[in-house]
Amino acid sequence: MSKQFDVVVIGAGPGGYIAAIRAAQLGMNVACIDEAQNAQGGAAPGGTCTNVGCIPSKALLQSSEHFEHAQLHFDEHGISTGKVAIDVSKMIARKDAIVKQNNDGILYLFKKNKVTFFHGRGAFSKAVEGGYEIQVTGKNAETLVAKQVIVATGSNARPLPGVEFDEQQILSNDGALAVNAVPKKLGVIGSGVIGLEMGSVWRRLGADVTVLEGMPTFLAAVDEQVAKEAKKAFDKQGLKIELGVKIGDIKKSKKGVTVAYTNAKGEAVNLAVDKLIVSIGRVPNTNGLNAEAVGLQLDERGAIVVNDLCQTNLPGVWAVGDVVRGPMLAHKAEEEGVAVAERMAGQHGHVNFNTIPWVIYTSPEIAWVGRTEQQLKADGVKYKAGSFPFLANGRARALGDTTGFVKFLADAATDEILGVHMVGPMVSELISEAVVAMEFKASAEDIARICHAHPSLSEATKEAALAVDKRTLNF
Fold first, then answer.
1. Per-residue pLDDT tens for 243-275?
2. Is 191 within any annotated ligand binding site?
3. Which of 177, 29, 175, 38 is CA-nearest to residue 107?
4. I want to staple 316 with a disulfide (CB 3.0 to 4.6 A). Which of 30, 75, 148, 206 is the partner?
């Protein structure tokens, strides 16, 4: 016998679990289905972000940063440690424990908000009177009927054509987070977020890391000035980044992996590594959804086609997050999930794509919101720019990390903030002030006039805003 719900959410990643909770808060009877499981076979809600993405990568980045600080920087603070060693298995166990805490936290939130959770794979079965039938397969098979459905099935790592992930030698982000010993030589294909973050983790722990990027420019989506500063820092750290390469044959053996490629000069190179991380983007995950059973429209990439409100071509069926258009970011998925739940309730949920922040959690961190300087030039927008280096910031000096700067871009006529770009210490936290400012359509002058705590890294934000009008006080 089928179980009846107002809303069934397929997928419990950031978009799905947040949509389910918000719909329940608004008085709907909600179910959420997710098939992810932990090593013990238990439910592991949270999607890619919690299980093999945002959360575990930050745990490893933190551990590796502590290790590097102990090796290279404690001495300048007067701290003597002797020989420093890394226990990779213990580091991975800590990461796994943090992931489980997040999994358990989501299950608790479901219980708190009276969301019924089903551990298994959810798929469309057929349209029925007043809604849709959803089959749950797994240990405990169920048949659900929903008046409305939210698809939030996320994305999968994109493999190189003809080179499948084995998660032992050729790794996706999943395998890159579970390496049980520091490889002597590590190759990374793709210098995006995942490639740079995972490359940074293993470089800090002692691996010889080479990153191969097909694009001729580094971080093409990032403000050019920021990308150059970041590249300079990575080069100094010993992260080898080759741009403009063309990947050829990739061969596995007992000894490791060999990557044949042509470099930017047209020279043939063979790179021998112990392990290879492939991070060339992600693809929408509609595997096993049985979209054809109900006529759910997909595009040529396999993404679910939606309008500006996240409505699909089917009445009462919505989709959010990585499985639809737009940036594949956990926080974008969350905002879409909330907006859809509120639209279902007759409210006016809203997502402003122009103020979605982006962050790369390397060292230095990279963060931005709004348009880059190259985009403004291409669009013919007249603008003013101002920047301030962390070298002149007292808190950054005290931290011992003065790499980078904050940069403001403002409309030349109105002074409205059009973009804010940062590279440096803890800019993942600083960027939120810029997001708030842009949501309220603030001017650079508004930020320049706000009192910031001293000493704090946020003073660099104030000073960069002052720099738009060429009146910095500390540089």
1. 999 999 999 999 999 999 999 999 999 999 999
2. yes
3. 38
4. 148
